Here is the input.
Amino acid sequence: SPEDIGMLEAGKQPWLARVTMPGASGEVRYVFPSEDCKSQHSELTCGDASGALVELFHAARASDDTGVAPVFEFGDSDARPFLDLEALALAAPGMSVRDAVDQMLVPALARAAKACAPLVALGARSATVRHYHPPELTHPIAFVTRTDEGDVDGDDARKRRECAHMLLGLPEDVPRLRQTCAIAIGPTVPADDVDRVGEASATGIDPLTRIVDVHAGLPMAKGTVLCRGPYAYFHYMQDRMDDKGWGCAYRSLQTIVSWLRLNHYTDRSVPSHADIQATLVKLGDKPKSFLGSRQWIGAIELGLFLQSYLDVTYKVITVNRGDEMDQQGRALVRHFEEEGTPVMVGGGVLAYTLLGVRYDESLGKC
Here is the structure.
């Protein structure tokens, strides 16, 4: 109810607004959620701005209880340039929602719209403003992206991000300004995983439904090098699926894809067993009888899937016996230091996920 969100409380996350503002002038309606924030609203009118509708979702009323920030959404079918904007404001404890919106969010939206003006002047029909908080910076930043050029991760968009990385002193080999890196505002919509040749379908798995970083907090011996960045923990017998004895490599692949997803190298979902099998069949690596089977896969199949599904390169290292792993110690240390991804280790019909390595240089042993 409106009473639940009448004041901003100290210690809560900042109030943010997502706005689609095409430029039509008019009154904005600030809509406060009642008992069911998805279907019923009590309306409060205040302020003037460009747009058609504002919806405020309070974390306490979110049906999934995930604790998301309130969301404002403007919509209009006007044919003028379409701006998908966000406003971020840090409000003082005790400030009312009305004052925060009028004094902070609406001016912030105006600044966001003004930031899109140079792209519109160049002929852009749509643009988006998202907020990012790279760990190298002490404060969030706003980044404008032109979205009428097709692929927002295409060559032109990549060049703009590279330029921004250079100006802000951000690392060149880690994604910081891709849209998947943006601060999440409200409920997110999964990526459109269309079923195409060589790609998984929309039956993928959200890595955030799994335990993340199971090694965190464990004591580590000196000289241990670990994977860099978060990953989700996948293990056989999850998802109400009995894959014990044959699904270990599938789970290792899911862990690797979760790392790429959680570290913003992709927005594709983590594939299910069925997705992996379907992709390998479409690639011609497996016969149709492989679909729905309990047949295990190995390192080659993992590499083929990753190359097809995410367009990433892979390397397979052959080790004849387990005691020869020491010979790969330096290579593994270099991999975790430079690439940082988990590593699938397979032998016979078993597979493991390697999250780090401790290599003793003096003894030449892992």
